[in-house]
Amino acid sequence: MIMANDVSIVRIDAQHAVELSMLCHEIYPQFFTYLWDDDGEWYLRTFYNAEVLKAELEDPNSMYFFLVKQGRRIGYLKLNLDKSIGNDAGGLEIERIYLSREFIGQGLGRHLMNFALDVARQRLAQYVWLHVMFSSVESIAFYSANGFAVVGETFLTFEHMLPRYRLMWKMKKQIQESTFE
Fold it and tell me: Quick check: helix, strand or coil at residue 68?
């Protein structure tokens, strides 16, 4: 557990899959219902049910964390520890970084991002990367401000996703080694 003031980042294990599912169902619709012809119900059922999340939590290459503020779970982070872009070895993927809308603008997203970058450095990753919806202007601005650059794109084919929102960008940030004197 990592703590700063009244905020902590807590590793999630498989026995907390139901709690993670509940938080996903709370946060995801705050941002992404516009992508779907069913307000995201299919996506939530398919990817954020407790059984799917439990399997992800049991995967040794994945790590999930709750962001907790004053005892309340307000966000989550998923890292894929050894996942590279194509043949570009040495990558760590930030697959999910979500924060409840009411806590946006308080530096908590940056707190999660710095934590993810610290994990990458500890694991000696050469770079961190992620996908971001092309339509998610706030997220793109956040990632750009944190040193990520667009390096490619992906086109999603999920059922119920509206065709005009299927484009995602791949963004990447090189990891710099710290120097100590």
Answer: strand
